[in-house]
Specification:
Peroxidase, domain 1; two-stranded antiparallel sheet; 14 helices; disordered N terminus; Haem_peroxidase_sf; disulfide bond
C-alpha cells in the first residue's frame, strides 16, 4: 500500500510538472529588465527616436500614447493596431473609432528599424508601443514609469473587434465605465487615462455633435469658439486642441476644463456631468501629483491587458506585417 501510495504521489507530481510546463507564460514573465542581456541599448534607442519625433511635432506625444491605448483595448497589447490589411483579415486602422484619431505609424516604423539594426528579431512591436508611450509622456513634461517588457506580437488584427471594443467619443458615462470594466480597469483608471487628453488634438468630425446637438453641458463661449473651426458641414479633418489652455504640456488643466464645461469631446465632458466620476475629476483638477500617480498606475495596468508572452505570437520583423 505504501509503495502504491508513493507511486500515485509521484505520478501526480509528474503530471503537475507536465501541466505547468505546457501552460502559456503569464504576466509574471514580464520584467523591466527583459532586454537587459538580449538588447541592452533597446530602451535608449527607443527613447532617442521618440524624443526626436516629438521635437519635430509636439502633437506626436499624444498620438503615441493613443496608439498604445487603442492597441491594448482590442486584442490586448499585441501591436495588432499596427498591422495593415491583408488578404486574410481587415485590420484595425479603418475602424470608425480609429480612422480619424490614430496616427504615428511612421514613427513606430522608424523606431523598429533602429532597434532591428542593433538587435534583429529581439524586441517586439508591442513592447515598442508600450515604451514609446512612456517616453512620449516624459517628452512633454508628463509622468514617467518603469515599463514591464516581454510582450509578443499578434499575427492578425480585426476591424470588427476594434469597433466592438474601443470606446466611443459619443459614449455615455455608463458606456465608458462598462467598456473599461470589461478590460479589467476601474472608474479611477478611466478618469486618469482620459487625462491623456491634456495633450493632442481632435478632428472636427469627432466633436461636431457636441457643438450642434443641443448639448447643454457646454460653456457657451467655448461652443461658439469651437464652431468657427468646425462648421455643420465640411471641414471634418479640421483640428482643435483637446486642451485649449496648455495643449502641448502634460498637466492637469484638462480636468479644470471639464469643471468649466469646456471638454472638447462628449466622452470627455461626461466625466464631469453630475455622475459618479465627478469627484475624481475634481480631485485631479486640484492635485496634479495625484493625477500623475494614478495615471502611471493605470498605464501599467492597461499594459497588462490580454498579453501574448512566452512562445505565443511572434516578434515581427516589420510592425505593419506579420512575419
Amino acid at each position: 500500500m505504501r509503495v502504491m501510495a508513493s507511486m500515485i504521489r509521484l505520478t501526480t507530481f509528474i503530471t503537475m510538472l507536465m501541466v505547468i510546463s505546457n501552460m502559456p507564460y503569464s504576466h509574471a514573465e514580464l520584467s523591466t529588465a527583459f532586454y537587459a542581456k538580449s538588447c541592452p541599448t533597446a530602451l535608449s534607442t527607443i527613447k532617442s527616436a521618440v524624443g526626436s519625433a516629438v521635437s519635430r511635432e509636439r502633437r506626436m506625444a499624444a498620438s503615441l500614447l493613443r496608439l498604445h491605448f487603442h492597441d491594448c483595448f482590442v486584442q490586448g497589447c499585441d501591436a495588432s493596431v499596427l498591422l495593415d490589411d491583408t488578404p486574410s483579415f481587415t485590420g484595425e486602422k479603418t475602424a470608425f473609432q480609429n480612422a480619424q484619431s490614430i496616427r504615428g505609424f511612421e514613427v513606430i516604423d522608424d523606431v523598429k528599424s533602429r532597434v532591428e539594426k542593433i538587435c534583429p528579431g529581439v524586441v517586439s512591436c508591442a513592447d515598442i508601443l508600450a515604451v514609446a508611450a512612456r517616453d512620449a509622456s516624459a517628452a512633454v513634461s508628463g509622468p514617467t514609469w518603469k515599463v514591464k517588457l516581454g510582450r509578443r506580437d499578434s499575427t492578425s488584427a480585426s476591424k470588427t473587434k476594434a469597433e466592438q471594443n474601443l470606446p466611443l467619443v459619443t459614449g455615455s458615462l455608463e458606456h465608458l465605465l462598462s467598456n473599461f470594466r470589461n478590460k479589467g480597469l476601474n472608474d479611477r483608471d478611466l478618469v486618469a487615462l482620459s487625462g491623456a487628453h491634456t495633450i493632442g488634438q481632435a478632428a472636427c468630425v469627432t466633436f461636431r455633435g457636441r457643438l450642434y446637438n443641443n448639448d447643454t453641458n457646454i460653456d457657451a463661449g467655448f461652443r461658439s469658439n469651437r464652431r468657427r473651426g468646425c462648421p455643420t458641414t465640411g471641414g471634418d479633418g479640421n483640428l482643435a486642441p483637446l486642451d485649449l489652455v496648455t495643449p502641448n504640456s502634460f498637466d492637469n488643466t484638462y480636468f479644470k476644463n471639464l469643471i468649466q464645461k469646456k471638454g472638447l469631446l462628449h466622452s470627455d465632458q461626461v466625466l464631469f456631468s453630475g455622475g459618479s466620476t465627478d469627484n475624481l475629476v475634481a480631485e485631479y483638477s486640484k492635485n496634479r501629483a495625484a493625477f500623475n500617480s494614478d495615471f502611471i498606475a493605470a498605464m501599467v495596468k492597461m499594459g497588462d491587458i490580454e498579453l501574448l508572452t512566452g512562445s505565443s505570437g511572434q516578434i515581427r520583423k516589420m510592425c505593419r506585417v506579420p512575419n
